[in-house]
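Lab notebook, bench 4. The sequencing result for the construct came back, and we need a structural model before the next group meeting so we can plan mutations. Quick request posted to the team channel:

Model the 3D structure of this chain.
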Amino acid sequence: IGVTAILTLLTPLAAKGGIGLLIAVRIIEGVFEGVTFPCIHAVWSRWAPPTERSRMASIAFAGNYAGTVVSMPLSGIFANAYGWESVFYIFGVVGCIWFVAWMFFIKTSPEVDHWISPKEKEFILGSLGRTEGVKEKIKHPWRGILTSAAVWALVASHFSENWGFYTLLTQLPTFLKDTMHFQLEKTGFISA
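Done. Here's the predicted structure in token form:
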């Protein structure tokens, strides 16, 4: 999150440096942002009791889409009032604040967190079971995974959904402004 926030802050400068630099910055940002969803599962595995994981996942993934719904209108307002660069500066600063707060408040496991009560810590650890010291090496069936029709169906489905979602997310405001002649501020609200 910290790296993506810094790269978001640098995006306007990269754009002024040329298309190659802009693409490089955005690709690097995507690489760092791409690990967010897989990493959140590791957080849940250490913090969420099994009976609460589905709820936590639903809230987190819904938050991703809710953030898009909130940020699109705000982006239109910021860009219209302060210029397109302001969108990257404002959201970059918000990302930096989020990162600092995360590093301060979120701990790797309940054992090392001094913010939670002993009762809550015992509840979480009791529901998860103690796994420290387990050094069992797991053999993953990679061949079976990579040759599974069900896995490739999920990959195709996820790719298609993301392609449609991110194409609309990135191209709809431009289409509404350039082709339909909407005001920039309104395109954010409509896109959301």
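The chain has a mean pLDDT of 90.
Will bring this to the meeting.
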